[in-house]
Specification:
By secondary structure, the protein is α+β, with helices and mostly antiparallel strands. The chain has one domain. Helices cover 20% and strands 31% of the residues. It is built from two helices and eight strands, in the order H-E-E-E-E-E-E-E-H-E. The strands form two sheets. Strands 1, 2, 3, 4, 7 and 8 form a six-stranded antiparallel beta sheet that branches. Residues 56-80 are annotated as: Disordered.
């Protein structure tokens, strides 16, 4: 996780670690693997943008919520940037936790997940 800790986080502890960061006001979290892959979660505490990147400079892929209506703001990055996304481009926070736990545990999206490739 991007808290400068060299200690790996197990997949089952990821939702708890993410919630702890959110509770402390850290709405952007990056998880990196020993390979060059990265997983980013940016939330407004209700919905989350979940992105899986294959390496530096990769536009990656992100979780989507087909059919969701409206948009949400308050996705605050660590540099202070405050983004707004269509709700169909983000997922409910509980779904983000499930996706991240699965990706950290297996390295891939769950078979029932919806995502868009941005490459």
């Amino acid at each position: 996780m991007n808290d400068d800790s060299p200690v790996p986080v197990s997949s089952v502890l990821v939702p708890q670690a993410l919630q702890s960061r959110i509770d402390s006001g850290q709405l952007e979290t990056w998880l990196t693997s020993s390979s060059v892959r990265s997983l980013a979660v940016v939330t407004n505490t209700k919905r989350a943008m979940v992105m899986l990147l294959e390496g530096e400079g990769d536009p990656g892929e992100h979780a989507v919520d087909p059919g969701a209506q409206g948009s949400s703001d308050g996705f605050v990055l660590s540099n202070g940037q405050d983004d707004e996304y269509l709700d169909e481009e983000t997922v409910p926070l509980v779904e983000a936790f499930r996706l991240v736990e699965h990706i950290v545990g297996t390295g891939s999206w769950p078979t029932d997940a919806h995502w868009a490739v941005d490459r």
